[in-house]
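User: Dabb family protein, Paenibacillus montanisoli:
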Amino acid sequence: MPLFEHIVVFKFNSTVTPEREQELVDKLLAFKGAIPGIVDLSAGRNITEETDNIHGFSLGLRVTFENRDALRAYGPHPVHQDFVKSLDGLLEQVVVVDYHI
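Assistant: Predicted structure for Dabb family protein:
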């Protein structure tokens, strides 16, 4: 079975400080030990020098899952749902891309 890549980029509203973004990154990084099926994970604040291409997206997440079932189980997992709840009132937009590798 192929591995699955899950990529998310976040665009926050103007109330979100860099410190709050870093707190969210720390929560994302904690997924690796807490959610089964994660092979690899990285997350961080957007530091690209391609400023014409940022479009307000300031945080990125990349998760590699061992298979499609692990990716599907991730969404409803309590640790992921806790993170989703912590985004209430903070988001302007989210982009998600999933593909097999």
